[in-house]
């Protein structure tokens, strides 16, 4: 079944990040993956294609696909807010809600939230723009029990963080990663970029006390978004 490709992708990504698949050694072939997971070769190829597009592997014709190596990680950064970007360009920020509701997500999301497969979550997709220019696409997933009340609030008007605070939910810790990836056709269309265009992808896990509350992914246009950081060497 084609719906199995997220499982294959999640398993391979985990092995790449933990070093189980090492640099210089080819990852399992599409044929081997298809046999292992009981799927078609096309389904296995889709998982491998996405890992290549996100920069985790590279292909050598006739030899196979190989890990690019773990991503470099250093320091702390924050995303410059949409309001800051708008102020700098003398434009008005705008938010369009693309999707909101209760959904059963794929394994990448349930794993990040620490939930069993098949668990329903609150899902929220928004497109953030400055003037007529899209800046970032956000896809958020929250533990349903704590956050279902969000669905009754003006999701297009305020920051989600502000809405959570208004509900008495306080974010105590955030873990985030930033990487450069290539956009699939649908996300590229929303951001008004060519398919396979490069952009930044930030993934963020948010905690309320010691409990994982949400998992968010932000696709940020490199020509319009900005990240800032300060540290003492």
SSE-based structural type:
alpha+beta
**Strand ordering within the main sheet:** 4-5-6-9-8-7
Measured between the Cα atoms of the first and last residue, the distance is 51 Å
The number of E-state strands comes to 10
**H/E topology pattern:** HHHEEEHEHEEHHEHEEE
Task: Count the DSSP helices.
Answer: 8
Assign an overall shape.
Answer: globular
Compute the CA-based radius of gyration. Answer: 19 Å
How many structural domains does the protein architecture include?
2
What is the CATH superfamily label of the largest domain? Chorismate lyase-like
Q: In words, what does this structure look like?
A:
- The chain has 233 residues and is of the alpha+beta class.
- The protein has two domains: 2-67, Orthogonal Bundle (Arc Repressor Mutant, subunit A), CATH 1.10.10; 78-228, 3-Layer(aba) Sandwich (Chorismate lyase), CATH 3.40.1410.10.
- It has eight helices and ten strands.
- Helix 2 (30-37) packs across helix 3 (41-53).
- The model is unreliable at 72-76 (pLDDT under 50).
């Amino acid at each position: 079944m084609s719906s199995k490709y997220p499982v294959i992708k999640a398993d391979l990504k985990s092995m790449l990040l933990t070093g189980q698949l090492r640099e210089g050694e080819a990852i399992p072939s599409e044929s081997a993956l298809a046999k292992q997971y009981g799927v078609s070769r096309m389904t296995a190829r889709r998982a491998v294609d996405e890992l290549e597009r996100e920069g985790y592997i590279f292909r050598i014709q006739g030899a196979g696909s190989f890990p690019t190596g773990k991503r470099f990680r250093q320091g702390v950064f924050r995303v410059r807010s949409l309001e800051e970007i708008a102020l700098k360009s003398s434009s008005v920020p705008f938010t369009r809600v693309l999707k909101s509701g209760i959904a059963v997500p794929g394994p990448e999301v349930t794993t990040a939230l620490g939930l069993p497969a098949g668990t329903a979550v609150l899902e929220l997709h928004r497109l953030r723009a400055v003037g007529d220019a899209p800046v970032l696409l956000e896809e958020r997933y929250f533990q349903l029990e704590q956050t279902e009340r969000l669905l009754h609030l003006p999701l297009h008007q305020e920051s989600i963080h502000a809405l959570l605070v208004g509900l008495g939910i306080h974010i105590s810790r955030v873990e985030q990663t930033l990487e450069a990836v290539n956009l699939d056709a649908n996300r590229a269309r929303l951001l008004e970029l060519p398919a396979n265009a490069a952009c930044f992808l930030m993934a963020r896990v948010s905690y309320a006390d010691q409990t994982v509350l949400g998992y968010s992914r932000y696709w940020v246009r490199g020509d319009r978004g900005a990240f800032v950081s300060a540290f003492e060497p």
